[in-house]
Design brief:
It is globular, with a radius of gyration of 17 Å. The chain has ten helices and twelve strands. The longest helix is centred in the N-terminal third of the chain and has 14 residues. The chain has a six-stranded parallel beta sheet with strand order 2-7-1-10-11-12, with helices on both faces. The chain has a two-stranded parallel sheet with strand order 3-6. It has a single domain, classed as P-loop containing nucleotide triphosphate hydrolases (Rossmann fold). The chain is 40% helix and 23% strand.
Length: 232
């Protein structure tokens, strides 16, 4: 079975990583692939009908078709909505490299199309001496970058692309996600990113009132997505 697995990161937090992850999984499912996005560390839960739920994990679990448990989609969930190493410290949880990697390595071989979604930007501490960039490196996965289109995005995108390359990882593609609907020079910023980022753009997602997986997936570049899902 051909497998296509990627590490999905972003230029910052709150720029739509989970929304894009869900859309990519939706598109893969529509192509008949066994697909899921995994969120190895999720910080921030709310109590719903007697159980603690992380909204991102719930969204990713709903869109996958691999028969995964919610605990397989989001194996390490913390209640406090802050950087994971700080949330873990507040809650008396010990995060370790192996505790993060082991559940991913157990599930990824079951997926024809799989995403591992990072936390915040590309370099967020997880535990002493190990961060999300190390996680991507340990998994040796090509990277998909979500660029939140707002003031400053060019700098953030290019610095992230440099950091990915510095780890010896391939930037497989990027998604422009409009987080500021009033952004000045929107198309000009997009053209600059097209010219300077060393990977194909997979989508340019406008500001959507209801960014469901299907609605976001409608803005994916079909040809670029096909290459992503079939290339060696």
């Amino acid at each position: 079975m051909s497998r296509h697995h990627f590490f999905l990161t972003g230029t910052d937090t709150e720029i739509g990583k989970t929304t894009v992850s869900a859309a990519l999984v939706h598109a893969a499912v529509q192509q008949g692939l066994t697909a899921a996005a995994l969120k190895p560390i999720a910080a921030g839960q709310e109590l719903r009908e007697g159980r603690w739920v992380n909204e991102d994990v719930a969204q990713l679990h709903a869109v996958q078709n691999a028969g995964l448990l919610e605990s397989e989609v989001g194996p390490l969930q913390l209640r406090t909505p802050c950087a994971p190493h700080l949330a873990a410290r507040l809650e008396g949880v010990t995060l370790t490299r192996e505790a993060v990697l082991a559940p991913l390595r157990a599930v990824l071989p079951r997926l024809q199309f799989g995403l591992v979604e990072g936390v915040g930007g590309f370099r967020v501490p997880i535990c002493d001496g190990w961060d999300t960039a190390d996680l991507a490196t340990d998994l040796a996965l090509p990277v998909i970058l979500v660029v939140g289109l707002r003031l400053g995005c060019i700098n953030h995108a290019l610095l992230t692309a440099e950091a990915v390359a510095a780890r010896g990882l391939r930037l497989a593609g990027w998604v422009a996600n409009t987080v500021d609907g009033q952004m000045l020079q929107h198309s000009e910023n997009l053209a600059t990113l097209d010219a300077l980022l060393p990977a194909p753009r997979l989508a340019a997602v406008p500001r959507l009132e209801s960014p469901s997986p299907a609605a976001v997936a409608a803005h994916l570049d079909a040809a670029a997505l096909q290459r992503l899902m079939t290339s060696p």
